[in-house]
TrEMBL record:
Keyword terms of this UniProt record: Allosteric enzyme, ATP-binding, Cytoplasm, Glycolysis, Kinase, Magnesium, Metal-binding, Nucleotide-binding, Transferase
Species name: Marinitoga hydrogenitolerans (strain DSM 16785 / JCM 12826 / AT1271)
Biological process terms in GO annotation: canonical glycolysis; fructose 1,6-bisphosphate metabolic process; fructose 6-phosphate metabolic process
Physiological role: Catalyzes the phosphorylation of D-fructose 6-phosphate to fructose 1,6-bisphosphate by ATP, the first committing step of glycolysis.
Lineage: Bacteria, Thermotogati, Thermotogota, Thermotogae, Petrotogales
Name under which the protein is recorded: ATP-dependent 6-phosphofructokinase
Amino acid sequence: IKKIGIITSGGDAPGMNAAVRAVTRTAASKNIEVIGFYKGYAGILDKDFVELSYSSVGGIMEKGGTILRTARVPEFKNPEIRAEAARNLKDLKVDGLVVIGGEGSLTGAKLLFEEHNIPVIGIPASIDNDIPDTDMAIGVDTCLNTAVDAMQKLKDTASSHERAFIVEVMGRGSGYIALMSGLSVGAEAVIIPEVPVDYNELTDRIWQERKRGKINCIVVVAEGAASAYSVARHFENKIGYETRITILGHIQRGGSPTAFDRILASRMGYSAVNFLLEGKFGTMVALEKGQTVTVPLEKVLSEKKVLDPKLIDLVNTLS
Ligand code: F6P
């Protein structure tokens, strides 16, 4: 391999820059050229790229967002558009492509590999932690820390005013962010798409706790389960608290990555280059039992990540 292309694609995730830095520096140490395409697959289609070097990626690890910028490119579902991207990569003599992103982005990578033999490797990056076969994706830890910090602040004001807060978090179809942030702040309840909610039972439980003297209540709701507004309607006049709503929104996607995300991104970026050199094309770097391994993209994308039932039981037991 003489020239590696990198894209960051789909929703951004804190730690993407640390991955770009690790890929670039690992490649540079082996005298492999690196180019970074701007705005994900759009940059490949427009041949819009920047040459990356050991020194040009200095000082980016701690930055949130992605210096390569990102985009969702729905046109990539069209096989002719993918053929154009493959032609551009071949024209530019890119003989290894690192795709940093979530499921949609990894699907594009899989198709470039299967249809056009482009030597791709994926790096999982998505705050949702919904990518199968890897224990963690880049950005999850920072997102959780941001959500927990915000909820802790809400808990302060909730206690002062004896209020309930319904906090809506991201996660697309997954309840991971809601479950883990709820666990971390000791939320009274977590509403996630994976578990049907019985509002009668829930409102009754919160009301009982209120009667016993509780002065705050945090209910975390995953966007994939319900909106905070619809949950509030179920609670109206039934829980004994005045209720407020907070939607954390895109705050969850920004910020300087935590040490965990910097380390994970560095390990995955470094491994991605080494796996490409070993010819492990059409795969994704995954974290499995503490080690970086490869998993075929075909396998990753044929599965759905399931929330560990033990974690759900843990949260139910402690809340
Ligand atoms: O996949 C990451 C994510 O932040 C989801 O949690 C959320 O549903 C979605 O992206 C929001 O996408 P956009 O930034 O395009 O509004």
